[in-house]
Amino acid sequence: MDATGSLAAKLLSETLMFDQTSLAALEALAANSDRGIVRRGEILVRQGEPSDRFFVVLSGRFTVHRADVAAPVAEIGQGELVGEVGFFAGLPRMATVVAARDSIVLSIGIQQFERAASALPSLRQSVTTFLARRFAMQAPASPHAKEPCRVRTLAVVPAGQSRISPIFIELLRSAFAASTRTAFLARSDIEERFPGVPVDDQPVLDWLNQLEAKAGIIVYIADEEPSDWTRVCIRQADGVLLVGDASGQAKLNRSEQLALSVHSPSSLRLVLVHGRRAAAVSGTAGWLDERPRIRQHHHVALEDGSDVERLVRFISGEARGFVAAGGGSLGCAHLGVHKALIEAGAAFDYLGGTSSGAAMMAGFASGMSADEINRGTHEIFVRSRAFRRLTVPQYALLDHKMLDRTLQVEYGDVLIEDLWLPFFALSTNLSSGQAHVHRRGKLWQAVRASGSIPGVLPPFFTADGDMLVDGAIMNNLPLEQMKEQKTGPNVVVSLGGGGPGKHHVDYDSIPGASELTVRLLNPFGRSGLPKIPNMIQVIAASMLAHRPQQIALGERDILISPPVSTAISFMDWSQHSELFAEAYQWTRRWIDERLDEGDPRMEAIFGLPVRSGLPETYGGVQGRSAL
What we know:
Elements: H1 3-16, H2 23-31, E1 34-38, E2 43-45, E3 53-59, E4 62-65, E5 74-76, E6 81-82, H3 84-89, E7 96-99, E8 103-109, H4 110-119, H5 122-138, E9 153-158, H6 166-177, E10 182-185, H7 187-193, H8 202-214, E11 217-221, H9 228-236, E12 239-245, H10 254-262, E13 268-274, H11 284-290, E14 296-301, H12 306-315, E15 321-324, H13 333-343, E16 350-354, H14 356-365, H15 370-383, H16 401-411, E17 423-429, E18 434-438, H17 443-450, E19 460-461, E20 467-470, H18 479-485, E21 490-493, H19 513-521, H20 523-526, H21 535-544, E22 558-560, H22 576-597, H23 601-606, E23 617-618, E24 621-622
Parallel strand pairs: 9-11, 9-12, 10-11, 12-13, 13-14, 15-16, 15-21, 16-17, 21-22
Antiparallel strand pairs: 1-8, 2-7, 3-6, 3-8, 4-5, 4-7, 17-18, 17-20, 19-20, 23-24
Helix pairs in contact: 1-2, 2-4, 9-10, 13-15, 13-22, 14-17, 15-16, 16-17
């Protein structure tokens, strides 16, 4: 029995949940089955064709496609089966399966399976149980696509006119070592093990695939030029890091062109390396303009390992998000929630929000503290009275000029793509009728667009002519947009879920234009006006009334809804500091309660076992060192 047969038997045993006593029969099945290499882009099975065999993925990755769906509907990784449902049910292939990278599969035909079933009577029952379990897990159908398979192989390729920093590689090695078994391979490692053998020859590829079964992840370090080894790295990789010196030339090189031609945008990341974590970053737009297919980019400072650790969480599907809902002045509560979580030891890798939630997250992404953002909120909405400046109601009720000026002062001219911490804001694109996710451009403009309450403020218009208004119209809690950006646990903060409440008003008592004018001119007549919300409050309540009926929380996502006083109106910013303080104290108690309950989602938020509790010092008071 060779190593491949043993590996195949082990994977089959784990998939079908056999015990060790059945392993010998499965090894016999694997030994009598056909092993094959499927190159990137090749079709393993085609929809509609007969299901005359099924496959075990020994290494590699496949994407699943259906004729009626444009994008891939699923991914298949090491240890999973391909075509087993059609094979055992006697049905034609239900989908087309394509190799996403060079892969090795074990092909099992009808005769091979029948011989194995004769030697192992429990095989048929185990297959039946496995298929029933598979169907039970798939029903009812989820509205969301299956999460991508875990990255098993990663290629590091030089970007621009840069060389790969050895300091970056060492930081990457340390970050991966903390969580998984990792093998780093460069050309010199292959030449030392296989002297005189071309790096793309079959013995090398066989050894690489066997190594993949043993290691948690393999990191391939490409050459500085598009060599045969660089091509192997790119073709063997589930994901690619294009690593460039942020101060260097951004022009696309030939190795990058190869990676961009082979990989989908979702598997590519641009990493811009900085010697130090300067207060301001510039020039990112030039790198992204040169690589328009890149969806994710990261800034990494080499002075410590924190940025690389965040990068590894993105690669590993463990990136932690903070999603902040809109809510007008109630958005100040986000400051208290975030501050309490950070003091308790949480770290967030991606920030996003709608309306006032986007404004608060933009401050954190810029490197501000909660107290600094609170002071900026006071400057914009209290001292400058940016939301109290009425204008001739031609374009909106409020004059937007003061708001724009104060936002520019608060956030400066920083671009979203230059932020150290990834961030997005959500607005509603009335030109297209779609959600608009701001991931590039001026930060203050994204905040302004995301909070453009219709009728209260003029819409924000982009250079492309799109008319943008408040994101809460489309989605006041953009968890879906966060999940489109990354995989991993999320803290989702909702505000004011109770709505405006009832108003017991005699409709006939609402005065018409002439009567209202007379009563407003008479100081004694104003006291008798019916107590109903004003125009701005009605617009705000109407906007927030349109929310998704159900938040699609994942198993590791957690929803936080700090209580806010119903006496504080949507537009009343005068109590922002009180909201901040109350949410902070409430969230500290909330964290304590969840830890006492042993909530497993807390482990995802803090990246530590729940039993380890809070750090020794927490919010200026002694925390528990253990539970």
